Amino acid sequence: MIGSGAYGQVISAYDSLLQRKVAIKKIKLPSINAVEAKLFYSRSLREICILTPLKHDNIVQVLDCYTPAATVEHMREIYIVTNLMRLDLHQLIKMNNQRPIDKRIITSSHVPHFLYQILRALKFIHSAKVLHRDLKPSNIFVDLDGHVRIGDFGLARVPEEEANTPMTGYVCTRWYRAPELMLCDGTYNSAIDMWSVGCILSELIFGQPLFPGRHYFDQLRLIVERRCGSLGFLPHEHRIAYPTITDKSLNALHRILGQCTNYHPKPFLPSDSIVPNIDAAAFDLLEGLLLMDPHKRLTADDALHSSLFNNYRKDAGGEPSSEEAFQLDLSPYQLPDIRAMLFQKVQLVHQQLHEKALILNEQATMAASTYAEKMDCY
């Protein structure tokens, strides 16, 4: 078993048809009478619907999905097959911190290498009008060659859903949660993902979470102490930055601001980095990603133009965007409908991907046969 969480277990396996190693995520579905049933089924359906069409080198790919159930009434679990990624950034950072300084595995070249791939994926995701909403080191997967893929889209959303139901602020793990998620009434956009990327970049550079809040108020206090007074946000400008701030959040913010005697932000210093010889552009990028005002925060496309990535850009014309916006709205549906939709989607995707795998297998077999025939001629 590779890992486990609230929504399932993940094991490694071998795909004998296409001769490749894969990861299989088992999602055990709750009883339809369970309190969290609709949320659980919706999350599973959303993840499959969003991940399947998002074809990008730096996004985890759905290679297959299936259920052993013959009918929706008998569906108790589903399985999602994806690329096998041996590590995530959380594990890598932890391993790095445990090593002696002269033997640490994250170098100054790894930071832009990892971040560039994360930003490539996010530009593609955001261009498809999808918000990930749960970016953190443990959802950024890395293989042994340093190839990065973003995964876990269970909390991802698209605008159509949010137009009909208020967006919740209870997304993103607390330490990576943007201030507008904590302060506003459910109005936010892709800037929340960019804040999370800033937190991830900081963790890569400094080896520890930047805002490890113990609870809501403590989290907000850490953000205010570290970032208030930074470019684009001063204490009296919160109404401009957050026009939909709630009264409760406004009171909490005023309370915290009243306790702070110095609004000048603590700068990000190269001397504090656990990774030697970090490019100064990384610290400029960090400032731009962690602006308090979401309207001034860097977008994925903005960040990709940083000089930090001069040696990594693959295409002078810019990184690819999605050709069309993704659409999904589950808000009109009740649990029985969502459950049936999940069963139908799993069946459909399994059929489509299995047929594709058979074609690829046939092509590989023919190529191998042709090669063998040519070799026999010598």
UniProtKB/TrEMBL annotation:
Residues engaged in binding ATP: 26
Database matches in InterPro entries: Kinase-like_dom_sf (IPR011009), MAPK (IPR050117), Prot_kinase_dom (IPR000719), Protein_kinase_ATP_BS (IPR017441), Ser/Thr_kinase_AS (IPR008271)
SMART domains reported in the protein's UniProt record: S_TKc (SM00220)
An example molecular function term from Gene Ontology annotations: protein serine/threonine kinase activity
Transmembrane segments: none
Top-rank taxon: Eukaryota
Domain Protein kinase, first and last residues per copy: 1-309
PROSITE patterns the UniProt entry points to: PROTEIN_KINASE_ATP, PROTEIN_KINASE_DOM, PROTEIN_KINASE_ST
Keywords: ATP-binding, Kinase, Nucleotide-binding, Serine/threonine-protein kinase, Transferase
Family in the record: Belongs to the protein kinase superfamily.
Name of the protein this chain belongs to: Protein kinase domain-containing protein
